[in-house]
Amino acid sequence: MAISLKLNGQIHQVEAEAGTPLLWVIRDELKLTGTKFGCGVASCGACTVHLNGEPVRSCQTFIEDVEDAEITTIEQMEEDKIGVAVQQAWVELDVVQCGYCQSGQIMSAVGLLRENAKPTSDDVDDYMFGNACRCATYQRIRAAVLRASDILEA
Amino acid sequence: MTTDISRRGFLKAAGVTMLVIGIRPDGALAAGHGSAQLTPFVKIDANGVVTAVVKHFEMGQGPATGLTTLIAEELGLSMDAIEYEFAPSDPSKYNNLFFGPFQGTGGSTAMANSYMQYRQAGAAAREMLIDAAARTWGVEPTVLTLQDGVISGGGKSAPMVDFLSAAAEMDPPANPTLKDPKDFRLVGNPGVRRKDSAPKTNGTAKFAMDLHLENQMVAVIARTPRMGGTVASFDDSDAQSIKGFIRAAALPNKAGVVVYAENTWGALQARDALTVEWDFSAAESRSSDEFRAELIAAVNTDPEFNAMKSDQAATAALIDGADKVVDHTYYFPLLAHAPMEPLTCTIQATEDGGILLHDGAQQPTGPHMAMAQIFQLPMEKIRINTMLAGGSFGRRATPTADYQVEAALAFVITDRTRPVKLVWSREDDITGGYYRPAVAHRVRVGLDGDGNILGWDHRIASPSIIKGTPFASALVHDGVDHTSIEGVFGSPYIIPGQFLGLTDVAKATSVLWWRSVGHTHTAYVMETMMDAAAKAAGRDPVEFRLALLSGGGKDQDRLAGVLKLAADKGNWGKAVAGRSQGIAVHKSFNSYAAEVVEISGAAEEGIKIEKVTCAIDCGIAVNPDVIKAQMEGGIGYGIGHVMRDEITLTEGVVDQSNFPDYEPLRIRDIAAIEVHIVPSAEAPTGVGEPGTPPAAPALANAIAANGPRVTELPMNTHGVTFA
Predict the structure, then answer these.
(1) Does the beta carbon of B426 lie under 8 angstroms from any beta carbon of chain A?
(2) Which of B176, B283, B392, B585 could lock onto B123 through a cystine, CB 3.0 to 4.6 A?
């Protein structure tokens, strides 16, 4: 089926079968590879994107369900006030190791701060629970979300 | 590449001046314009762009920052003024100095084997540029300094790029003068930031999974569900209707059926639509309970190897005559590595009749040799483009080059006009073998009336990781695979009456090193036995260990040093009310790490890991913040798996399939980690792995302080609930 996607502020016409995960349209058709494939079953969060501003797992979001939605990926975060603060905090604290999960971590962190500008450590742990990092950078992820909150408040 | 073009001619023809400093195949430092006979570690172009050529791949452990730091330090550059790139595959030039003629990353050696090599390359570049300036200006080189790309002194000052051409004409110094460590600005500076943070934060970093070559096909493979199974036949008629499906074919070695498609989703769906008949006549059909029983039986009979060549009967007699005996049997399950980026690589034919492999290549020499064999090409016709790797933990370093060979087999049976990108799914990864082997230990420790150790009888049963691989000559001695016993063998503890027996047990699956290799189980056993013995002796676990380290040499002192530092910083013996503590210390990869774990709650109702305090002595700490990060990650990796992960088999088929049943450590599992680095002037040693071994036994000891002694893993199926 032909689908019109509104992604990162642009309209894209793509051809994909119903049931195709948004993840694979983003990665293989639109060639935006910042969004990662980690598990395919919404269990690791590496594929997190925003759908109308809310984080979703793109590996379990199907193409036919997003035609009218605003989709945002990591590549667009430099245009987002919260995204910029989160990326700044991530770099300040050198959160990344292998880095493969970090796009998803950042997309979730932006979602959290959009909902809750002043989260506690426990809030971060609860919200970010579904984003796995096999390098176990969690300590710095937690600190960076809190740091981003401070940056935004300043 | 021909080298008879004159350097001057080359520079003119190229229109740019470039100074490349490296080491010639004969080991001497060499300078030139980058012709094929050189091994460049440092490149400087006419615009003053300095590039460190990094011979170790980046899986998050930090060599892109670390080796670059060494070059920048010696050249007097800030970290912002230097770029990095990964070296091509060429073991004659970029070999790991600890691995012989083999290029690769592993065993926490990247910094240890590169530290002097990269400093020398940077120092040679500095000396040549300064010498060139000195000649031009007619001054003594000793009056000149190079800092931030500017050479100055003797009343003169000019950018270093002004002297690139002159420097490129010079013979490099045989023994360049290295910077005095007291003048270091970058090495040891906790403010140095990672070179790869920004691209890994904005989505621009390219991992092997992110490669899209024009006209590529995506390949996924239906593999045998049981090790040793082969394809008998397959039917792809249901796959024909899948959008993007191209075709399916049995791999030449019958290990699976490869599905080619226009894109990843099409390939995954088409594979689901295949029907494959397997020949299991030579396949594994046992269940994990059976090999668990076999391993435990093996540690309860006379061992195959006497690894320390000590007197088994004498140890037994000492223990039989002891006042108290502590006796525990341990079982460690199979574990998957599960790096965040599933395995992948891409192969394409090149215009010169060669092969180009794009890979997060941990040990390029392995796949390089495999490609040469499969494609029947000379080594120089194979090139490897090393890309970022999304974790490894050992998985990308199989001695068989397993996934690269799969990709080659998938490519070799095509007409080779289209690049083939092999993609593993998470299910492929979890079920696909190459696990940390299942291992059993039994240890009996005899104590005298004062709580001193009289004898220590230690038996290990494990499948050998190393036997049958090219690494056997280096790591198997007198039949003993030293990766099965490392951490007991070679422990700095001075233990009287020690016996160490090893029995090799046949493999039920492919097995592989897993972050910290043998130390994953030996540290757990040594350190929980120390804790249990201290308890039985009525002695403090720290004091009990220090007594076994006193009167030794530097090895004992360094282990004792981290133990005392972790105890001090972790408030050992002064836990927050309602909490319990455990401690463990272990030497691995020539580094010394101690960790205190503090928990709240109880095993029955649910425990919470409140804090881990780590002390690490890894020699000179080149990038302190990277080292801290590696300790944090190593601790998380060690703890996450013992909490709740195992791979089990039912009649030869793996029971787990993806993260929901091989649950990763999550953010709320560890509330805080604090890392302290011991100041040191010793040569740098490992950091990628040494944080892992003490973490699990420190947790187990914290649980045992007020609950059960866990001797079989994972903990959550053996009496421990986590909050």
Answers:
(1) yes
(2) B176
Give me the pLDDT at residue B470, please.
Answer: 87
Task: Note down the domain range covering B466.
Answer: 288-335+435-717
B635: contact with A, CB 8 A cutoff: yes
Q: Is B609 on the interface with A (CB under 8 A)?
A: no
What are the residues whose beta carbons fall under 8 Å from the beta carbon of B183, sequence distance 6 or more?
Answer: none
A78 CB near a chain B CB, below 8 Å?
Answer: yes
Distance, first Cα to last Cα, chain A: 47
Establish whether this prediction's ipTM goes over 0.85.
Answer: yes
B361: alpha, beta or left, given left = phi > 0 and alpha = psi -120 to 50?
A: beta
Residue B429 in any domain: the answer is no
Cβ separation of B668 and A129 shorter than 8 Å? yes
Statement to judge: residues B268 and B295 lie in one domain = no
Report strand pairing: B498-504 vs B453-462. Answer: parallel
Cβ of residue A101 closer than 8 Å to a chain B Cβ: yes
**Whether residue B475 has pLDDT greater than 70:** yes
Burial class (CB in 10 A: 0-12, 13-18, 19+), B353: exposed
Contact residues on chain B for A24, CB-CB shorter than 8 A: 263-265
Q: In terms of domains, do B396 and B513 share one?
A: no
Q: Which residue of A has its CA nearest to B671?
A: A139
Last residue of one domain, picked from the residues A40, A58, A75: A75
Question: Do residues A82 and A145 both lie within one domain?
Answer: yes
Residue B579 near residue B599 (C-beta atoms within 8 A): yes
Residue B326 belongs to what H/E stretch? Answer: strand B324-332
A56 and A43 in a common domain: yes
Does the pTM surpass 0.90? The reply is yes
CB-count burial class (<10 Å; 0-12, 13-18, 19+) for B191: exposed
Domain final residue pick, B423, B458, B489: B423
Decide: B133 and B142 in contact? Cβ < 8 Å: no
B664 and A98: CB-CB below 8 Å?
no
Please check whether residue B673 lies inside any domain of the structure.
yes
Q: Which residues of A touch B207 (CB under 8 A)?
A: 33, 36, 99-100
Encoded tokens for A48:
């997190």
Q: What tens digit of pLDDT does each residue of A23-59 get? A: 999 999 999 999 999 999 999 999 999 999 999 999 9
Q: What are the two backbone dihedrals, phi and then psi, of residue B400, each rounded to the nearest 5 degrees? A: -90, -5
> B116 vs chain A: nearest CA distance in angstroms?
24
- Of B173 and B58, the structure prediction assigns the larger pLDDT to B58
Please tell me whether residues A41 and A84 are part of one structural domain: no
Parent domain of A110 = 76-153
Residues 642-661 of B with CB under 8 A from A: 658-660
B632 close to A (CB below 8 A): yes
CATH, residue A70: 3.10.20.30
Tell me the C-alpha distance between B99 and B302, whole Å.
34
**B189 CA to centre of own chain:** 24
Answer yes or no: do A27 and A62 share one domain: yes
Q: Please indicate, yes or no, whether residues B516 and B372 belong to a single structural domain of this protein.
A: no
On chain A, the residues whose CB falls within 8 A of the CB of B204 are: 34, 75
**By the CB < 8 Å criterion, does A103 face chain B?**
yes
Domain count, chain A: 2
Q: Determine whether the interchain pair A78/B204 forms a contact, defined as Cβ–Cβ distance below 8 Å.
A: no
Count residue pairs from A and B with Cβ separation < 8 A: 185
Number of domains comprising chain B:
3
> Could you tell me the two tokens for B52?
């460190």
Taking alpha carbons only, the member of B415, B407, B391 closest to residue A102 is B391
Backbone angles phi, psi at A39, to 5 degrees: -140, -30
B206-247 pLDDT, tens digit each: 999 999 999 999 999 999 999 889 999 999 999 999 999 999
Cα A133 from Cα B629, distance rounded (Å): 13
A80 at B interface, C-beta within 8 A: no
Q: Is the pLDDT of residue B36 over 90?
A: no
Do A31 and A8 lie in a common domain? yes
